[in-house]
Amino acid sequence: MIIKKIFNNNAILARDLDNNEVVVMGSGIGFKKSVGETIEEKLVEKTFILKQKDASEKFKLLLEHIPSEHITLCGDIIDYAKNMLEVELNDYIYVTLTDHISNVLKLFDEGFTNPNPLIWEIKKFYPKEFKVALKALDSIEEATGKRLPEDEAANITLHLINAQFKSASNKVEDVAKQTKMVQDILNIVKYTFNIALDEKSISYERFVTHLRFFFQRLNKKQELEDTKEDDFLLKQVKAKYKEAYECMLKVEKYLEVALSDEEQLYLTIHIQRVTQR
């Protein structure tokens, strides 16, 4: 690999044998080096190849302002998340999560913390991601000696959820808002039927999953296409599951959007299933 730019003693920008632009990190890897020189392979500890150009550019900017140890720490956290969650994460996670954690550590030194009012909902709706985030707190403590509060695990969880969607236009704030809206919809169902929902049931899990992806479509203004078959099925479901249909209309009113026949159909069926005693 050939050095293209030196950020600091521990981080450089280089080109590999396939002519890919990569960020390479390692203790002393840039010390007394010059652009155009070859990297000593034995000094390489971590390599970042970001395929999304915009994410790559922002990541390089980040390297100029954030301690390299924070970059390495967050890279390890992201690698762990990928392995445990077994999902693809958008390249922007390297920018957003690294920037977030580095800023949190700085604020922590100044005596500030960032409470998350949705921690209870986040724990409930995203248990796998929250478990990974708790492990991230362990890694942060091991690397820095600083134990961040559990609220910070909730904040990290939102970054992990956001990175599971391909579009880079999503914001962590949107995920937080959607999490609250999922809880609001569950409350509408709960109070309409005057029952406690079985949060361990498959129907509950499917309903929450449907709502999560429904909000992604809503956020991107993507609508499912209506067909005559959907209209026919909706009429059948409306007649068979009157209470569930009426509850769906309350949800539609809460959302303040006109739902397609297919969305109405799926929501009604999910509501019927999750409320079956």
Rg (C-alpha, Å): 23 Å
Distance between the termini: 63 Å
Number of β-strand runs: 4
Average per-residue pLDDT, rounded, comes to 86
Please state the overall shape, judged from the principal axes of the Cα atoms: elongated
CATH fold-level label of the largest domain: PTS-regulatory domain, PRD
Fraction of residues in helices? 55-70%
How would you explain this protein's 3D organization?
By secondary structure, this protein is α+β, with helices and mostly antiparallel strands. It folds into three domains: 1-49, Transcription Regulation, Sacy, Chain A, CATH 2.30.24.10; 53-170, PTS-regulatory domain, PRD (Orthogonal Bundle); 185-275, PRD domain (PTS-regulatory domain, PRD, Orthogonal Bundle). Helix content is 60%, strand content 7%. The chain is built from eleven helices and four strands; from the N terminus they run E-E-E-E-H-H-H-H-H-H-H-H-H-H-H. The chain has a four-stranded antiparallel sheet with strand order 1-2-3-4, with helices on one face. Helix 9 (228-240) packs parallel to helix 11 (261-275). The model is unreliable at 224-228 (pLDDT under 50). It comes from Clostridium manihotivorum. This is Transcription antiterminator LicT. Residues 65-170, 173-277 form the PRD domain. GO terms for molecular function: RNA binding.
